[in-house]
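Let's see one such:

===
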Amino acid sequence: MKTVLTALLLLVACTSFAQQLTGSRELTLDDAVKMALDKNYSIRNASYDLEIAQLSRSKAGDALLPGASGSAGYSYSKPLTKQFGVLPDATHGFDYSVGANINIFAGGADAASIRSAGYSLDAARYNLKWVRQNIAFNVTSAYIAALRFKELQNSTAKTLTESRTQLDRVKGQYQAGAVAVGVVYQQDALVGQQELESIQAKNNYENALADLLFLLDVAPNDYLNFDVSLKGIDTAVATISGRAKDVAPTPSTISSLVERREDFAAIRSNILAQEANISITRSLLLPSLGAGVRVGGSGFNTSFNNIPFSNTLSGSLTLSVPIFDRFQNRTQIDIQKVQLEASQVNLEQSVQSFKSEIAKAQNNLRGSERALAASASALASAEESLRSASERLRVGAGIQVDVVVAESQVQTARSNRINSVYNYLLASKQLEYLLGRTNY
């Protein structure tokens, strides 16, 4: 039994160690989004804001409740001066008081405070929802970028392998006396250039992966343990082309989004809260009325155990009328009105910016869709040109320069093809995000 257990532990340890060495832990897009929604700093801060808003709403409602307080005290007094030649006895005293008070009218401040806190709570809820959408899109964008650079890295490595194979072939031809040494130098220079491009492509991928994992709150020393995967992402041109018509919004859809999308709803709720805050300040210009009731008593005696108490019950009504506050509240109202107008302008600007982003996203989607077909045709032509140039060189009817040029064109065409596919995916995801069609 011990042998079996030891073997299992060694297997788990070896598997974990192998994953750390190879970075073989694949992280799907869904996994990445879920990790971000659980651990991202912006989402956590927005959650705290919501919790604070909930507590503030409760606090505003609790302000309508009566207030109560109580107190009790003991005193001891010993005279130090004799009276008629005799030092008086020490006295002991007790007193207590229990009271309650309630605001009957506070100029409408209590009701306005409840409204303001309620609108702020709505804004916090909308904001948390929108932050989640925003983070999900940022993670999706970073994930697509990592996939793009991973495929570009693979493409560069493939081209480098092909160029090295061609270099070996040319060296063989040179040794056989079929080509001049200059042909070898030309191909060797191309291989060197592509080695640099391969190094840069690997660095670009590692940086893109680091950007993604930062959004997931993954520690930098764990970066090598993760890798991105195409699992769950369709990059087949036959299925992704033509999506522009399905994703494209109608004018009525855009108008509806302005009314219901969470970021705009949060701004509107904050505007309503600002209006309620003006009412709170305005209430300070009005009279206020409060009522209170109190039960209390006190007693003094030279004997600690036999103190007579005098108990009282009292009630009160208090009317407070502001007369002159040095224009502080009126000026504060003017300031709040200007801030309110600024918020309304910001909302209008946000709506206009949103419509502009929608238009640009649609342009990007249409343009990237057209680029899909163009890049496919260009890649097919470049690969055929390379095949033809290599064949002509093999039979002695071509020159090495043609092969070098064709190899460079193939690498460019492959990169353009990869970029066109991922540009389309990103444009599609961006439009879905702007249209509020993601739900996290």
In short: The chain has a mean pLDDT of 87.
